[in-house]
Amino acid sequence: MGEETDSIIGQVIAYCKRVNQNFKLKRVILFGSMSRGDFYPHSDIDLLLISDEFPDDWFNRQAELYFLKTKRIEPIGYTTDEIQNMLKEGNNFIENVLREGRDIELF
């Protein structure tokens, strides 16, 4: 792994540890340009966070995830049930993230 990639993974793990203090994370997936390897120095770090402890209200959940983030991290959080429902509905976004994303080992 290159120095830039190591730094990105370090930022992701630090962020996920902060989130995990409030919501036990089941899975974290890095997606977008960072997972494909075609990122630029100032690219966002797109993360799909899965936890069954997220608040039911999606907007409150996103606000809490954004409150904990650093500048480059762009989180989106769903529960396991929400992911399953989106897959049943053929949600292209979730299908692409699960197919092309990179699982991050947290702890």
Characterization of this structure:
The chain has helices at residues 3-22, 33-36, 58-68, 80-88, 92-100; strands at residues 27-31, 45-50, 73-78, 102-103. It has one domain: Beta Polymerase, domain 2. 50% of the residues lie in helices and 18% in strands. Helix 3 links the parallel strand 2 (45-50) and strand 3 (73-78). It has 107 residues and is α+β, with helices and mostly antiparallel strands. The model has no long low-confidence stretch (mean pLDDT 88). The two termini are 19 Å apart.
Mean pLDDT: 88
- Major beta sheet, specifics? 4 strands, mixed
What proportion of the residues form beta strands (DSSP E)?
A: 15-25%
Q: Approximately how much helix is present in the residues? A: 40-55%
Annotated CATH homologous superfamily: Beta Polymerase, domain 2
